[in-house]
Amino acid sequence: MKTVAITFVMFLASCVAVPLKMDGQPAAAAAAKAEDVMINLAHKRQDDNNNNNYYRGRMTYYNVGLGACGDDDSGLGNTHNIVAISSSLMPAVGGGDMCGKKISIKGSNGKQVTATIRDKCPSCPEGGIDVSEKVFKEIVGDLGVGKTEVTWTIL
């Protein structure tokens, strides 16, 4: 119960702190700076074998279109390796420096594919990704499966 109370107090403190100025910056800039810190902390997950950014999560597929990176990928889902990563790993506005980065995705069956970050996935938990149909088929083989567990790294 003590842990719950401490967590609740920390949550309340963070709610109160957001509207205040941070380093003399307006509230919006302070919130953006706090988000950058959280993103940097999220990227600290590392694979014991090679010290690269390493994630594990659920992979689903979607119909690609106008992405958070500003490019319209409509009609490219069956021909291009496109990925949308969890919103928790991308800035609130646009895709920031994550846009255009390559990731290596590995399925539980051992199949591996490289894809380009072109979008963000608001419904994906941290570590979860949404991919173009081409990527999903290359790893799983069948769209009917709908979702699968994968690991992935930012190259």
List the helices and strands and how they pair.
Layout: H1 2-17, H2 27-42, E1 54-61, E2 82-86, E3 102-107, E4 112-121, E5 129-131, H3 133-139, E6 147-154
Parallel strand pairs: 1-5, 2-4
Antiparallel strand pairs: 1-6, 2-5, 3-4, 3-6
Descriptive tags:
155 residues, 2 domains, globular, single chain, six-stranded mixed beta barrel, 3 helices, 26% strand, disordered N terminus
Walkthrough of the structure:
The protein has 155 residues and is an alpha/beta fold. It folds into 2 domains: 2-42, no CATH class; 54-154, Barwin-like endoglucanases. The protein is built from 3 helices and 6 strands, in the order H-H-E-E-E-E-E-H-E. The chain has helices spanning 2-17, 27-42, 133-139; strands at 54-61, 82-86, 102-107, 112-121, 129-131, 147-154. Strands 1-5-2-4-3-6 form a 6-stranded mixed β-barrel. Strand 3 and strand 4 (112-121) form a beta hairpin. The model is unreliable at 1-48 (pLDDT under 50).
CATH superfamily of the largest domain: RlpA-like domain
What is the arithmetic mean of pLDDT? 76
- Spatial gap, N to C terminus: 42 Å
* DSSP summary: helix tally: 3
- The third-level CATH topology of the largest domain is Barwin-like endoglucanases
CATH architecture of the largest domain: Beta Barrel
Number of E-state strands? 6
Percent in helix: 25-40%
Overall spatial form? globular
Rounded to an integer, what's the Rg over CA atoms? 18 Å
Largest sheet: 6 strands, mixed, barrel
